[in-house]
Outer membrane protein beta-barrel domain-containing protein
Amino acid sequence: MKKLFLLLLVAFTCVAANAQLVTSTTVTKQKKAPSNSGMFLEVGVGKLGADWEGDGVAMDLGLGYRYGFSQYLAWDILKVKAMAELSNFSESITPQVMTGIRGTSPELFANMTAFASFSLGYGREIDIEDGGFCYEIQVGLNITPKFNVGFVYDSQKLSDWDANLSLAGLRLGVRF
């Protein structure tokens, strides 16, 4: 009798364990969404606007890391950038540290998508040794998944001088 009970117990355990096995017919595999996470480099050129005589052509250069939550939403965790007027380069360098959010549209045509981003942080104008709150708004097109072009507006508040420094221009970006 003990042997029969043991045989039934082993058979029941084997059946229960076999029911736990996952087969390919019972589970469907889902496609993984394309990742838009990684390092990025942005280079821009445009018109510098300032509350003093520093108006002219300027450029900006930024490097950062982006974490993608989905193919439509990403967080620019850290962006370190600088903008400067080209004719007065050494006296107008303004480094900035920012974080922000970036939204991407579904595919428009031929693997191209539209995007918009908003970043904020702290920046400092080195020559006058003053800094404060800064923000950036950018809209554009992702030409390929790794290359984008867009319009950017960057504003830097200088707290001690009660002044603003801004850049409006064209920006090229590469994600790697």
Q: What stands out?
A: Residues 38-175 form a domain with the Porin fold (CATH 2.40.160.20). The two ends are 70 Å apart (CA to CA). The chain has one domain: 38-175. Residues 122 and 133 are 5 Å apart (CA to CA).
